[in-house]
Protein 1
Amino acid sequence: MKSDFAAAHLHLDRACHYLRGDDETSRAALAALDLVIDAVAAAQHARPVAEVLPFPRRANGGLPPLAS
């Protein structure tokens, strides 16, 4: 099962909205949520590692001719 990072981001943003208090616990929770939101956003927009394919070379070491 794949994670739905967009939905997680939405719910975390909503949680921040509900933590409007000016007390230390609310501020600490908001700071922690900010870290989690950053991690979710990074995971949401991460690209898979790509495999680099070698470019074909001619036997004599030169590059193949360009198509005309």
Note: Residues 35 and 41 are 10 Å apart (CA to CA).
Protein 2
Amino acid sequence: MNRTRKTLLLGFLLSWPLLYVALMVLVLLFSPALLAPPHGVPVPLTFKLLLALHLATMLGTGIALVVCALRLFVAADLSPEAKRRWVMGLVAGSIFALPVYWYLRVWTPARRMY
């Protein structure tokens, strides 16, 4: 896989939590049966799949935040103050900050290489 494809794949993975929130809002708005099945009815398979997707997304988001923070601390082109601001932004803004991090710290430098 070439570098551009890897960069775009990483961009999708870092943008996934934000897309996931929008997807879950739509799913939960348009299928209220998933929220409260009738009493005594087993949990539907779709709910189990959504729960697995949710857990995978949350785990992936946590891993992405840790990896991004570690990459920031070893970045030579940032001042210590900028590193601290980036980490605070990642922690406070998590799903909103990850796509911004990808665009500013991964995509833009990768485009300059070509």
Note: The chain has three helices and no strands.
